[in-house]
Amino acid sequence: MNVPIDISGIHIETDRLLLRPIQPTDLDDFYAYAKVPGVGEMAGWKHHESIQESQTILDMLVQKGEVLAIVHQADGRMIGTIGLHPAREETLERYPQLRIRVVGYVLSKAYWGQGLMPEAVRALIQYSFQTLKLDALVCCHFAHNSQSRRVIEKSGFRLYAQGKYVSEQLNKTFDDMCYILLRDDIGSVAKTES
Question: Distance between CA atoms of 184 and 112, rounded to whole angstroms?
C-alpha cells in the first residue's frame, strides 16, 4: 500500500553528500544538470529547455514533499534529486500488504561514475526502513540504462518484474525492469557487503 509521507524536512548526511529539502536557491544548479540532453531521458522526462521550465518543476517538487536535493558537500552544489514516490498499481497488486514506496533519482552527468548515487540510495534506504518504517522499497530502470541497474543491484534490490513504461513526455515506450528491497532483507545485504 502507498503510505503518505513527507520527507521535505529531513537532512541526511553521508561521507560526500547531503540529502536535504529542495530550496528556491537550487534553481541554477537544477537547471544546469536538467538541461543536459540524456540526463532526464534516462528517467523518462525530456531535458529542460528553459530555466522557467526548471522553475515550474522545482516548485512542483517542493510542493509534493517526496523529493530531496542531493548536494555534493565538497562544492555545495545541488547535483541531483532523490525521492520516495507512490508505487504503481501493478506493484500494489503484487504486494498489497506492504507499506511501500518507489525510489527515484537523477544525477548530474558531470558526477556520473563516482559512486555517489549508490551512496545516496543506501542513505535513503536506511532512513526509509528505520525512520519511516516502510516494509519495502521498489526501484525501476529502463532496460538500456545500465548505470541505474548497477546502482540498484549494488543497493541490494532484487529483480521482481519486467514490463513496459510509457513516457508521455518523450512519447515513447521503454522496456522497464523493476526491483524490490524488503526491510527484512537489509540484514542479509549488510552481511554480503562485509
Answer: 30
